[in-house]
Amino acid sequence: MKQNRKMRNTKPRKVILEELKKVTTHPTADEIYSMVRERLPRVSLGTVYRNLEMMAESGMVLKLEMAGTQRRYDGTTDNHYHVRCTMCGRVDDLPIKLIDGIESEAREASAYEISGHRLEFTGLCPACNDRAGGKAAG
Question: Which residues pair with 94 in a beta bridge?
């Protein structure tokens, strides 16, 4: 469960959050570092990593950890679904309606105390689909 501890709002943390909220592509820490360096040229990679971890632990951002892929971060913390490219690893928000009652159904089907869910769709992103000759389309 996420802790809701109060964190000081440092300049790097503020810029990281602003940059992360500008995109829906769920960048890696290295990609966020590049984005933040445009505004804070002296920021270190370690500072970005530490802040992302603290922000994820506090619930300010989501940390997306999928098997076999780099950790990605999401500035949108409300329930929503994702789609991941099986070729390049790109992750995007999937703007579809949430499935009603799925958590209640999961509670009834298991002995787990269900606290939430994440649903990920997989496929080829438009760029990889084009490179593959459009084989995934249709």
Answer: 81
Residue-wise DSSP of 27-68: -BHHHHHHHHHHH-TT--HHHHHHHHHHHHHHTSSEEE--TT
Report how far residue 97's alpha carbon sits from residue 113's, in angstroms, rounded to the nearest whole number. 24
| Rounded-to-integer distance, Cα 73 and Cα 63, Å | 5
> Residue 129 is inside which H or E element, if any?
helix 126-131
107/98 Cα distance (integer angstroms): 17
**Percent of residues, the chain, with pLDDT higher than 70:** 91
CATH number of the domain at 79-138, out of 3.40.50.1820, 3.40.50.800, 3.30.1490.190, 3.40.640.10? 3.30.1490.190
Contact (Cβ atoms closer than 8 angstroms) between residue 63 and residue 73: yes
The CATH architecture to which 1-77 belongs is Orthogonal Bundle (1.10)
Indicate if the pLDDT at residue 2 is higher than 60.
no
For 65, the token pair is 């950890």
Q: What is the pTM of this model?
A: 0.73
Q: Give ∠ CA 77-83-88 in degrees, rounded to 5.
A: 115
